[in-house]
Fold this protein.
Amino acid sequence: MATWLQSKWRYLFMFLGVQLVVMALLSREGYHKRVSYFIRIFRKLETTATGTFGAGSLHASNHTGGDVYANLSLLAKAHHGRGEEMPYCPKTSPLIGGPIHVIFPSGLTLAQVVRKNPLVVRGGRYRPPDCEARHRTAIIIPHRNREHHLKFLLYYLHPFLQRQQLNYGIYVIHQAGNYTFNRAKLMNVGFREAMREEDWDCLFFHDVDLIPEDDRNTYMCDANPKHTAIAMDKFGYKLPYKMYFGGVSALSPLHYLKMNGFPNNYWGWGGEDDDIGVRVSLGGMFISRPSVKVGRYKMIKHKLDKGNDVNPRRFNMLAKTRQTWKLDGMNTVEYEVLSRDYFPLYTNITVHIGTEAGLHATAPSPKSLAKAPAKPPVEAPAKPPTKLQQKH
Ligand code: UDH
Ligand code: NGS
């Protein structure tokens, strides 16, 4: 009995000893990490509760990704002044961090975004302070009445592009007036106006409500036109259909001209992105895409805008892209720039783009436009799946 008791105590002591050693190791290695883990959880709760970007939460990150501003404060310190002798930036930026934590709290102001981006200069331009960028990218954003979305996009996009060590500029192409919105025509305007200012080697056509969630999704052009918004949260982070070309795409000036730019005649919602996708192949090119792991975007939820009703003619128009792409596009775009403002975070170009009837003619009656030919489309090159068609 005594021997049994002795061995029982021995095992108990051994067990306690092991526990002590484990605890000692844990507190040496992991104490700091564990404390900051709990602080992060605490901060996340705080952010959700207050719904604002508080001083702490701006730096918070969690398992869904890191803080898009992490590392960037080092850049300001590394500023050498722009001498002739700057080396090229490395082929892969050392600032890239992978997944980004994206949230949309209500308290953010544009002034805060300006303060967070001290190296961005007039008109939303940036060049890496310590190396010569290998890529010059213009971001073109079609816009009307979406200031609250623009604020979030700017908050995330500026540091995202700085982490990629790009020479970049952000252009917001603002449609003047209340006539039906025309996303693709605004892109044509953006292309011409941005190229007028600088010899950009890549143009990103970017919806205002899509926030990239991984900075390995590099905003540089490929050998073929690139569609980058391939995994959006609203589509369950999957491509909704094979020919989908909406949301965000990247083309070099050469790609753009090869396909005669984008169509000018899609007024209202839908179909213009499918037309652009078809133009890529009609121009003798392919659609390139990043992997679904990095081509991830979070969409800022919203309803269909006033002045952007679903275009009832889109399927008939799409069926004719093969006949129309050379007759309508960059070679026929007509518009009038009403103002050009160099704001701290972007260049704003407000533009008059007219109506279906031309730049100065009175608008056609909505009834006459809604009339669709009785015959169904003969050829529907970029026909999306029935599920999506039925949704509209
Ligand atoms: N845009 C504006 N203002 C508008 C309309 C569109 O700025 O009034 C721009 C903006 O950049 C937007 C893009 O055009 O991100 C595309 O328009 P959208 O966001 O309305 O299109 P999306 O397909 O969303 O992303 C539509 C939501 C509901 C569609 C339901 C159709 N049945
Ligand atoms: C297709 C539209 C596209 C649109 C896509 C996603 O059906 O323009 O749905 O729409 N094509 C036509 O209507 C011909 S979404 O789910 O984002 O509203 O981009």
In short: The chain has eleven helices and eleven strands. The two ends are 82 Å apart (CA to CA). The first strand starts at residue 125 and ends at 126.
